[in-house]
Amino acid sequence: MLKGKSIVSIDDVETEDFYEIFHRASIFKKTVKEGKSLELMKGRIMSTFFFEPSTRTRLSFESAMNRLGGSVISVSEAKNSSAAKGETIADTIRMASSYSDIVVMRHPMEGAARVASEFSTVPVLNGGDGSGQHPTQTLLDLFTIWEKYGKIEDLEISLVGDLKYGRTVHSLIKALNRFNNKINLVSPEILQMPDHFLNTLKNRTKINLNSNIDEVLQTTDVFYVTRIQKERFVDLNDYQKVIGSYSFNQELVDRMKDNAIIMHPLPRVDEIDPKIDGNKRAYYFIEAANGVFVRMALIDLILRGGKVE
Amino acid sequence: MLKGKSIVSIDDVETEDFYEIFHRASIFKKTVKEGKSLELMKGRIMSTFFFEPSTRTRLSFESAMNRLGGSVISVSEAKNSSAAKGETIADTIRMASSYSDIVVMRHPMEGAARVASEFSTVPVLNGGDGSGQHPTQTLLDLFTIWEKYGKIEDLEISLVGDLKYGRTVHSLIKALNRFNNKINLVSPEILQMPDHFLNTLKNRTKINLNSNIDEVLQTTDVFYVTRIQKERFVDLNDYQKVIGSYSFNQELVDRMKDNAIIMHPLPRVDEIDPKIDGNKRAYYFIEAANGVFVRMALIDLILRGGKVE
Amino acid sequence: MLKGKSIVSIDDVETEDFYEIFHRASIFKKTVKEGKSLELMKGRIMSTFFFEPSTRTRLSFESAMNRLGGSVISVSEAKNSSAAKGETIADTIRMASSYSDIVVMRHPMEGAARVASEFSTVPVLNGGDGSGQHPTQTLLDLFTIWEKYGKIEDLEISLVGDLKYGRTVHSLIKALNRFNNKINLVSPEILQMPDHFLNTLKNRTKINLNSNIDEVLQTTDVFYVTRIQKERFVDLNDYQKVIGSYSFNQELVDRMKDNAIIMHPLPRVDEIDPKIDGNKRAYYFIEAANGVFVRMALIDLILRGGKVE
Fold this sequence. Notes:
The structure is a homotrimer. The first copy, chain A, has 11 helices and 9 strands. The two termini of chain A are 18 Å apart. The first copy, chain A, has helices spanning 15-33, 55-67, 89-99, 112-119, 135-149, 167-176, 195-198, 213-216, 236-246, 250-254, 284-304; strands spanning 45-50, 71-75, 102-107, 124-129, 156-160, 182-186, 207-208, 222-225, 261-263. Chain A binds chain C through residues 35-38, 53, 55-56, 59-60, 62-63, 66-67, 69, 71-72, 76-77, 227, 266-269, 274, 285, 288-289, 292, and chain C through 42-45, 47, 71, 73, 75-78, 80-82, 85-88, 90-92, 94-96, 98-100.
């Protein structure tokens, strides 16, 4: 039961909740595609507090609330706000929760969302906090896999790119690891998944560390590619070399399973060649669009319990 | 009658209007708490023009308009807007008033809101102009007192902290002074209420200048504490000394009247110890939340005359 | 038929569409003036992506969508957004179009809106791209003329001021030139309309280059004045001289035809003396307010086909 709950970490979402979210997201996807309007959140307000910018996450949440018939109040540059006058997160979130029925927060500091959820009088959705969690991204990733395969277990999933700093892959692997999935980690040495993080996972036997893209190319069901940030490299030549070997292009795609899909949390830069955008395996735009439907489901389940009207 | 009026200064609000606002705010508070949605402002638009940032004031107004079923268009950083191309306040406000049914403006320059109200074709609500007025803050402060005591007269009220620059206390004392209240001014010497301002007040005999917190602690009904800004002090030692003597902590609260309340326009920094947040006398979060209901009442009374549907 | 179309350039609007837009805008103007609320866009979302700030254009679009009963999600400083992480316009617009039903974009780069319209899965409205087009400004300008004269042909129209950089006059002259209008170009030498632009126009015989304000003052039906930017002048004395001769003041207005109107895309600075704001020929505020009604018409015709309910 998600009703009344805050979602700070993907661990806050129980296994049975996943499927409830997916089913509800499917229904909302159909409703929106048919151009029907909803009034489930009529009179309700979401506040979005973004202490660091994230256009994609913010707009996706705001679109979701609007699609449900609710309203939004928004601080897209919260660092210029009361916080700049020395206000604590606790006080800021108390304000937010007295102005709205649900709060979405993004913050550069790991743990900020947990603090917020403790002081808020309304549910808090973590829109990403530092190198911590980004649970709604994980939910939309899982929904996209579920939509394709009808399940989120017994699959082979390759996480590719920046596995060290990439917040989305940390949230995702935690969730995938709960189920019986084979997971391949494919990354340059300096961007490998940290040991201290890997140690928090339960089923380590199903995880192949230090995989090579060529080894997993023909067996993988889901490629999850992340952006490799130039800024991580001291030497730009190293960046060029890495990008060269991790770029998803036509040649690579042609060697994949017919049924495989390629996902990416976006924005992408050089990791995926725009020439493959039209390929049937390119799922990253579908994935991005799914963000709205999954967030609609989550808002509805949290504020209304998702009961069918 | 507030219908069609601009609210630039608390002086624009007549005594009988106060009680109409309070009653209407009470009704809206009940409606919102019950989760009922309203459509009183359906099809109406509020524009918020903030030439200096004020998250709390802006979001509170926007929440109020949304709670009433209306829409909001917003400029949170108006200094980057047309004004930057050399446009006058007169022309900017003409634009705002041709796009919306009511305008909320905050501006760093005293008198800006008055100018705006003269050129606007729709009502203007002053969201604070320089060291000038901040009338809706005063209304929510008064409503909070009225909710507690059932009246805004015959009370002993101590204003504590920065009485020199604090815009909210200037608006508030003007209003309190209209009624038969005893007012104590408690502040460090360098932050005393300016003489030129005190001279504008009518009933000066009811005002105790240079009060000491210990003297008034056991007789005060309402403590109104304001933020003391570090930047006001040349010597940080002076700031530390002042904060030391004006901080509301458990020891101080224990000596207050059982029935007393502590208010603060927020954000607070060091003036109020978070440890007393759970004390029954701590009214600052209730006060902040009341901002939405008072602004709902004001918008409704101005745009619809507040008639009951 | 505008249904489902993007509007990147005024050339995308066919002649018969002009009149359909004008009629629909008239109806919406009446509806809004009467305080009636509309639900034509209920459940629909507009996203506004402004890669350079333009308060007037953005708020006017957002007001229009709200007046129609729709919602808005907004990025007023898109340069701080995903684009800053290296995302292409194509990817940004794909995101926008998966979150909303119609996208308004403003971009500093000429041609950006065309690119956006090619990758978007929903209609794109160009809110100005570099020195390129600003078609909705042109439509509201034409509507204002049509409202006054009942036609947009067989008129004498003088374009005054910065005809070199002024994006609005380029869009406007293209449209006016389609009909049988006499057009006078009045500008300082350094701000004349560029030859390469003039060469794109069809009926050059109806255009009087290098007109003098005194020559055209008594025959002109519509004066369209644009802002002359100080920054264009190396020598500020030159600016002062130019402003001196192009300023619309009482003396100039008194010599105009009784029926003439003065328009300006705003913001104005020194080109129009505020003392003539009350003159019956001053149409620039009416013009600005018309922006909302014309954009309502456009959104409605594009998303619904404008059918009467």
